[in-house]
Amino acid sequence: MHADIVDLRQFYHSRLGRFAEQSISMALSSVWARLPEERLVGLGYAVPYLDRFRADTERTFAFMPAGQGAVNWPVAELSATALVFDEELPLPDSSVDRVLMVHSLEFAENPRETMKELWRVLAPGGRLVIVVPNRRGVWARMEHTPFGSGRPYSRGQLTALLRETNFTPGASADALFFPPSKLKMVLKLRSAFERIGRSLWPVFSGVIIVEAQKRLYQGLPVAARASRRVFVPVLAPHGVPTTRETALRRARPIDL
């Protein structure tokens, strides 16, 4: 089950969320250089981090899963947001250069199918960066942040998944060494926690960040897939009463 878009926005607008964004952004900058004239797609809820990269890109899109919901981005500009099903992205083959996954893989219904779809849309030599909760970390055990939901990964599990889906793992980093506490005293000490954590307990970071490159010398088995679901938008005017059964039927995805 995906995290809700409202909860994600509220978290990143909170003090704890802003500090978490700073920690992850610093780690991202160590594994991902500038993107001169490349096409970048953020999958999941990556908008807090896309702003740092899009100035150098040819174009940047924010793809948000249908189960999560979407918000308009960038603010006060033409929208570059799309509501998608992560196993069937609305892109042609080999059409993007980079993909950034945040709050995405841990919620994927079928992680292997999602990774195969990303392999399809990435250009030859394209790169992927994944940010996932660390199953050994404290953040994966606290439900008051988005990193406490979904399926956390170990570095070994993430590496194995990448290799199974024809990606070559490359550089990696860790972030969120400070506790996910809302106490001001703890947050004031976050810089010390981050500095000491990288030296003394790197395996207990809150998130794992791994970069991978699309591998070309092996092929993926081709199998015809029929779309399994279609999400139907519900437009109901305010003040019009509906029965509970009707509302549920409108919100339910249609199985094909």
Automatic annotation (TrEMBL):
Keywords, alphabetical = Methyltransferase, Transferase
Report a single Gene Ontology molecular function. Answer: S-adenosylmethionine-dependent methyltransferase activity
CDD domains recorded for this chain?
A: AdoMet_MTases
Kindly state a single biological-process term from the GO annotations of this entry.
methylation
Segments forming domain Methyltransferase type: 87-130
Which Gene3D superfamilies is this protein grouped with?
Vaccinia Virus protein VP39
Q: Does the keyword S-adenosyl-L-methionine apply?
A: no
Source domain of life is: Bacteria
Pfam family example for this protein? Methyltransf_11
Task: Return the protein name.
Answer: SAM-dependent methyltransferase
Which lineage is the organism of this entry classified under, starting from the top rank?
A: Bacteria, Pseudomonadati, Pseudomonadota, Alphaproteobacteria, Hyphomicrobiales
